[in-house]
């Protein structure tokens, strides 16, 4: 397994007749799955016995199995047990196994006449054959074909098999699992190819769902959310032309020739929202647009991949939010994250800051394996080049150290709070930065260390990106129950996502752990409420891809003492001001970019209204989520508005 070209793990398969014994172990950024599997196959290559054990990326224990006996298939995954008739036999889609099962499924689909088979727990998988390529390696040239499996998730899954139907590679734009010895020839070629396949898919979706009307577009009879007043206006018409808001007029003003008129039916237009902690990928770009997230601050990415995505969005090839880039810089260690760039010396780190400063990055983000003693020098250089600095607290340092070094913003609430509970020398490059949160219930929030940190942040104007939703999932998610983050929308999602959202992230099997994690989340909310009360500026971001998670992030901001209107102002104009973009974005005013969305009700009274978006306008292009979501297997949450007239 390679991530950004670095070896981060492996998958080993041993055959014993019809039995496969599999070890899968990947560690990137100090974490990753460790899985052991035993699979028994029938003569057709379908699993009839399957045992999966180990730990998921964040440590949740895995005890998953399939047994086909007496005409019935029974299974157990993290959501509980299930069963279905085994005549005809379906193919079990594992929840926490290795990618090798994709090769087994692809082979079974290839053997099927119409390349479509029923799968357990539910649904149908289909196969589409794509390109065949040849790769050189120590055992000679291998000819391999990439296939796309549909029906498993919101996006197709790409798997590459050799001529004998054996797994050769499983690639994404950012990483690849590839046959040993063929890394050099296959890594870049296959990652580039699957990114091309993804782009082609989103180009097709864009062609089907993006509406670029000739002439002006008038959204008639809508109230506007005014983030300055934190209230709704009276009814207006909003006219859009060539990507800009050409005018905001009185409701039901005269329509000029050539306009497309959309009936807002007394609903509310809200300015496009800002996801402030993204790691942006092509697969989630359109889903963010459909969720009203028209701007993203990317907090770390492979620079060439992100630039390519930004180019495709700017050209209108695919849909996606406006992206503000952060320069991700990580120190070199056995626990390094392979996102962005890694450095080994202070000189390399300074060179990287300067490299980003010359390429229009707005911010530097420092990460876990960075040496804390380098921070002040790097901060000074970034500031001299006009960039802000944010990030994790480097291992063996505390938040106070980074505040004193000149950080403009602290990232993740756990990164701050760990400084109050960790012992000297404990290593946060590992999962300890998450599991040690079980110490938070015993923390006295009125203690001197807490007071000192919060006072420094308030006095120095240090902002904070808490990513509350990811902590909610980490600390409150439990096997068999829906994560509270997604309880409102889970029924509209594909079965695969429903299954995922009914799975916990962490291991709570030890006595007292469940209660400790629940108490930890309560302490997090209390701490953030204290921050808000002291005037520490909190910015909404998820680190979970935005979209539905972003809606939940805003709901959790209400728990900190903010009204729905205050939350919406924070998510829109206040973020535009924070990033220096308020001249063009953040509110619905004449001359600004046409980035906004329509809901039927009043989100200043009920923030849940933003989960029922009827229309999104992004850079003047109109999208109806009711048309977008079916392409991802998602049931729409609201109907599109009526188009009254169209030239």
Question: What does it look like?
Answer:
The chain is α+β, with helices and mostly antiparallel strands and 647 residues long. The protein folds into 2 domains: 2-208, no CATH class; 273-585, TIM Barrel. Strands 17, 18, 19, 20, 21, 22, 31, 32, 33 and 34 form a 10-stranded mixed β-sheet that branches. Strand 27 (363-366), helix 6 (375-384) and strand 28 (388-391) form a beta-alpha-beta unit. The longest helix has 27 residues, at 183-209. The chain starts with a strand and ends with a strand.
Give the termini distance in whole angstroms. 54 Å
Fraction of residues in H or I helices: 25-40%
CATH homologous superfamily annotation of the largest domain: Metal-dependent hydrolases
CATH topology of the largest domain: TIM Barrel
CATH architectural type of the largest domain: Alpha-Beta Barrel
**Overall tally of domains:** 2
Secondary structural class: alpha+beta
The helix tally amounts to 17
Rg over alpha carbons: 25 Å
User: What would CATH call the class of the largest domain?
Assistant: Alpha Beta
Overall pLDDT metric:
95
Apparent shape: globular
Quote the beta fraction.
Answer: 25-35%
Uncertain regions: pLDDT < 50 for 5+ in a row?
A: none
Protein name: Amidohydrolase
Domain Amidohydrolase-related: 281-622
InterPro entries: Amidohydro-rel (IPR006680), Metal-dep_hydrolase_composite (IPR011059), Metal_Hydrolase (IPR032466), Metallo-dep_Hydrolase (IPR051781)
Keywords: Hydrolase
């Amino acid at each position: 397994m390679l991530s950004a070209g670095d070896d981060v793990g492996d998958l080993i398969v041993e055959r014993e007749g019809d039995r496969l014994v599999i070890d899968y172990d990947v560690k990137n950024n100090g974490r990753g799955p460790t899985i052991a599997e035993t699979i028994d196959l029938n003569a057709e290559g379908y699993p009839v016995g399957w045992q999966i054990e180990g730990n998921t990326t964040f440590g949740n224990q895995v005890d998953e199995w399939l047994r086909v006996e007496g005409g019935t298939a029974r299974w157990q995954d993290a959501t509980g047990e299930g069963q279905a008739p085994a005549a005809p036999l379906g193919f079990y889609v594992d929840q926490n196994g290795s990618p090798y099962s994709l090769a087994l499924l692809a082979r079974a689909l290839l053997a099927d006449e119409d390349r479509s088979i029923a799968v357990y727990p539910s649904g149908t998988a289909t196969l589409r054959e794509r390109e065949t390529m040849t790769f050189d390696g120590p055992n000679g040239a291998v000819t391999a074909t990439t296939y796309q499996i549909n029906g498993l998730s919101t996006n197709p899954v790409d798997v590459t098999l050799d001529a004998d139907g054996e797994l050769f590679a499983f690639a994404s734009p950012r990483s690849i699992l590839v046959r040993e010895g063929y890394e050099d020839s296959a890594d870049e070629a296959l990652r580039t190819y699957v990114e091309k396949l993804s782009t082609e898919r989103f180009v097709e979706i864009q062609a089907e769902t993006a509406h670029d009307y000739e002439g002006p577009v008038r959204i008639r009879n809508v109230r506007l959310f005014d983030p300055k007043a934190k209230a709704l206006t009276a009814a207006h018409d909003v006219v859009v032309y060539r990507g800009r808001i050409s005018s905001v007029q009185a409701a039901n003003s005269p329509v000029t020739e050539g306009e497309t008129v959309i009936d807002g039916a007394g609903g509310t237009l809200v300015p496009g929202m800002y996801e402030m902690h993204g790691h942006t990928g092509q697969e989630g770009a359109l889903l963010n647009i459909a969720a009203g997230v028209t701007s993203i601050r990317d907090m770390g990415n492979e620079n060439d991949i992100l630039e390519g995505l930004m180019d495709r969005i700017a050209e209108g090839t695919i849909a996606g939010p406006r992206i503000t880039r952060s320069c991700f810089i990580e120190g070199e260690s056995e626990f390094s994250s392979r996102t962005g760039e890694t450095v080994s010396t202070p000189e390399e780190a300074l060179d990287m800051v300067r490299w980003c400063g010359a390429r229009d990055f707005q911010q530097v983000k420092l990460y876990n394996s960075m040496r804390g003693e380098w921070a002040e020098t790097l901060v000074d250089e970034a500031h001299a080049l006009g960039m802000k600095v944010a990030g994790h607290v480097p291992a063996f340092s505390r938040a106070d150290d980074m505040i004193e070094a000149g950080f403009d913003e602290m990232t993740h609430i756990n990164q701050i709070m760990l400084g109050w509970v960790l012992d000297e020398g404990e290593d946060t490059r590992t999962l300890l930065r998450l599991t040690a949160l079980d110490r938070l219930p015993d923390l006295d929030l009125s203690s001197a260390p807490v007071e000192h940190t919060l006072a420094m942040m308030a006095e120095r104007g240090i902002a904070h990106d808490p990513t509350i939703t990811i902590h909610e999932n980490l600390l409150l998610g439990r096997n068999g129950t829906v994560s509270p983050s997604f309880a409102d929308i889970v029924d509209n999602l594909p079965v695969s996502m429903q299954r995922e959202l009914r799975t916990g992230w962490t291991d709570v099997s030890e006595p007292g752990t469940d209660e400790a994690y629940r108490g930890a989340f309560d302490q997090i909310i209390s701490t953030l409420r204290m921050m808000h009360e002291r005037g520490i500026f909190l910015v909404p971001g998820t680190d979970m891809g935005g979209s539905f998670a972003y809606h939940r992030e805003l709901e959790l901001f209400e728990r900190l003492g903010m009204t729905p209107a205050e939350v919406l102002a924070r998510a829109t104009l206040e973020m535009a001001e924070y990033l220096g973009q308020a001249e063009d974005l953040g509110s619905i005013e004449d001359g600004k970019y046409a980035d906004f969305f329509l809901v039927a009700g009043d989100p200043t009274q009920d923030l849940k209204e933003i989960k029922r978006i009827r229309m999104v306008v992004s850079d003047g292009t109109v999208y109806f989520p009711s048309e977008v979501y079916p392409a991802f297997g998602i049931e729409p949450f609201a109907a599109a508005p009526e188009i009254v007239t169209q030239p």
